[in-house]
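Colleagues,

For the teaching module next term, I've prepared a clean inverse folding example: a structure given as C-alpha cells, and then the sequence designed for it. I'd like students to try predicting residues themselves before seeing the answer, so please don't circulate the second half yet.
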C-alpha cells in the first residue's frame, strides 16, 4: 500500500497527466518509453526514464516483463497504467501484485468481471441496476435467440461478451439478418478476442452515451462525481465530451448517480471507475458497461467538480480515505472537451504522422490543454493519434461553447492536419448548440 515512487506504464498526454499528479503528491516518478519515444516529453518530465523496448507496442508498452523489470530496477513500488495498453488487463494486475508492486487501479477480480460484458450485466442486474432487455447470458446457438426476440421484438443487437468498443456487434431487423448476423458476430468475436460468446439485446435507436464517474476507496466509501455526455463519436472513437449532459435534469441526475454509486458499492469496487449508460429517446437509461480505468475524458469532470481525479486515484491506492462527501459537492458550470487528433477530417480522418513545425497553445480563463506535443515534435506512426485534449470551462454551456470556439481558433498546429477545424464546425452546428445530439450525430452531419 505505501509507496513513494511510481512507474507510469503509458505514454503521451496521460503519462504527463499522471506525472503531474504524482509530483504534487511528492511522489517520485519513473517514465517508461519505447525506442520511438526517446524524445517524448513524458521522459523529460519524470524524475527518471527507462527504455523498455522497440517501437511496436507489443514489444514495449504492452511488454509486461520489461515493465515489471523497469519497476524493479528503478525501485518503483507502484505502477499507474493510464488508459489503453495494460490498463484493463487482469493478468497484468495479478503480475504486479505477485511482484509486490501496487497496481494503481482496481483488483484483478474487478477488472476481469467487468471485462466480461455478460457477467457484468448479470451482476448489475442482480443488484437492481437494469441493463437493456435481452438474453440472460450467452446465446450458444442461433435458435436460442428466437424466443428472446419474440419477447423483445426487432430490431435487436448482437454483442460479443468480450467486446466493447463496437467490435463483433451486429444489428438485426428480421430473422434472416439475425441468423447471418449471429454467425458473423461469433466469427468476429472469436477472431478478435478468442471468445465467441454472443448475447442479444433490444436495439435502441439514436441513443445517448452517458457515463458516471465514480471514486471508491478501501473503506466502502463511494462518490459519484456527475455524468459525462459522450454521444459525439465516430466509429466508436469519442470526439467531444461534456459535463453536465444537456439532457440530464436534477431528477434524472439523482437516479443516474445513485445507480452508479450502487453499482460500485455492490461489487465492493475500489479506485476510479466509470459506469456507462445508454439513454433512449424517452430518457430511460440502462446500464451498459463499467470501465475500470481512468478515462481520456476525465478532465471534464475535474473542471465541473474541482476534484483532481488522478490525485484521488493515487491516494486511494495509498490506502487513504475519500474525503469528498456526496452530499456536500455541487457541479459548477459546464465543461467541454475536444479531442485534437493527428487525423485529416477532409481525408476520412486518415492518420497524419509527421513533424509539428509550429505550435501555439490556446490559453486564457477556463481554457486547459492536456498535451504532450511541442514545436519540433515528430508524431510516431505506431501509436494512437491523440495529440491533446482541449477542455473549456464556463459558467454555462453557452459560455463553454463560446470559449471552445475561441480556443480552437487560437490553436495553431503546423506541419500536419488535425481534427481542430472539424471541432469548430461542431461548435457552430445548430443541433449541437441546442444539445440535440445522439451517437449518430457525426454520421448525420457528414453524410
Ligand atoms: C447498443 C446500441 C443500441 N442498442 N446497444 C457501441 C459500443 C458498445 N460499447 C455498445 N454500443 C452500442 N450498444 C443497444 N442495445 C448502440 C451502441 C452504439 C454506441 C454506443 C455508445 C456510443 C456510441 C455508439 C455508436 C454506435 C452504436
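(Answer key — instructors only)
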Amino acid at each position: 500500500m505505501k509507496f513513494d515512487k511510481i512507474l507510469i506504464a503509458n505514454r503521451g498526454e496521460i503519462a504527463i497527466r499522471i506525472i503531474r499528479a504524482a509530483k504534487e503528491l511528492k511522489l517520485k516518478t519513473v517514465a517508461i518509453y519505447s525506442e520511438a519515444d526517446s524524445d517524448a516529453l513524458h521522459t523529460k518530465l519524470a524524475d527518471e526514464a527507462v527504455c523498455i523496448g522497440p517501437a511496436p507496442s507489443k514489444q514495449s508498452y504492452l511488454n509486461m516483463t520489461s515493465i515489471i523489470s523497469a519497476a524493479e530496477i528503478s525501485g518503483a513500488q507502484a505502477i499507474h497504467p493510464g488508459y489503453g495498453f495494460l490498463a484493463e488487463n487482469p493478468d497484468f494486475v495479478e503480475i504486479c501484485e505477485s511482484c509486490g508492486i501496487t497496481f494503481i487501479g482496481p483488483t484483478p477480480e474487478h477488472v476481469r468481471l467487468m471485462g466480461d460484458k455478460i457477467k457484468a450485466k448479470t451482476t448489475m442486474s442482480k443488484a437492481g441496476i437494469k441493463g437493456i432487455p435481452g438474453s440472460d447470458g450467452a446465446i450458444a446457438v442461433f435458435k436460442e435467440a428466437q424466443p428472446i426476440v419474440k419477447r423483445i421484438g426487432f430490431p435487436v443487437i448482437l454483442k460479443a461478451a468480450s467486446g466493447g468498443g463496437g467490435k463483433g456487434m451486429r444489428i438485426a431487423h428480421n430473422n434472416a439478418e439475425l441468423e447471418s448476423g449471429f454467425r458473423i458476430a461469433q466469427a468476429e468475436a472469436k477472431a478478435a478476442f478468442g471468445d465467441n460468446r454472443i448475447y442479444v439485446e433490444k436495439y435502441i435507436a439514436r441513443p445517448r452515451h452517458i457515463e458516471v464517474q465514480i471514486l471508491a476507496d478501501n473503506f466502502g466509501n463511494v462518490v459519484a462525481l456527475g455524468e459525462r455526455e459522450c454521444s459525439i463519436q465516430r466509429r466508436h472513437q469519442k470526439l467531444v465530451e461534456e459535463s453536465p449532459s444537456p439532457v440530464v435534469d436534477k431528477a434524472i441526475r439523482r437516479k443516474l448517480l445513485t445507480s452508479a454509486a450502487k453499482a460500485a458499492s455492490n461489487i465492493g469496487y475500489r479506485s476510479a471507475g466509470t459506469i456507462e449508460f445508454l439513454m433512449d429517446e424517452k430518457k430511460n437509461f440502462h446500464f451498459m458497461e463499467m470501465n475500470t480505468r481512468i478515462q481520456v475524458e476525465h478532465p471534464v469532470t475535474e473542471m465541473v467538480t474541482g476534484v483532481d481525479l488522478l490525485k484521488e486515484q493515487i491516494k486511494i491506492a495509498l490506502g487513504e480515505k475519500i474525503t469528498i462527501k456526496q452530499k456536500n459537492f455541487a457541479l459548477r458550470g459546464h465543461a467541454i472537451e475536444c479531442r485534437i487528433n493527428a487525423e485529416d477530417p477532409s481525408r476520412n480522418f486518415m492518420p497524419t504522422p509527421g513533424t509539428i513545425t509550429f505550435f501555439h497553445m490556446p490559453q486564457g480563463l477556463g481554457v486547459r490543454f492536456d498535451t504532450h506535443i511541442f514545436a519540433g515534435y515528430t508524431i510516431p506512426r505506431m501509436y494512437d493519434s491523440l495529440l491533446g485534449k482541449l477542455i473549456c470551462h464556463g459558467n454555462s454551456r453557452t459560455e463553454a461553447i463560446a470559449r471552445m470556439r475561441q480556443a480552437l481558433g487560437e490553436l495553431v498546429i503546423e506541419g500536419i492536419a488535425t481534427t481542430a477545424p472539424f471541432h469548430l464546425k461542431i461548435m457552430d452546428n445548430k443541433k449541437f448548440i441546442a444539445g440535440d445530439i445522439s451517437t449518430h450525430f457525426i454520421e448525420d452531419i457528414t453524410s
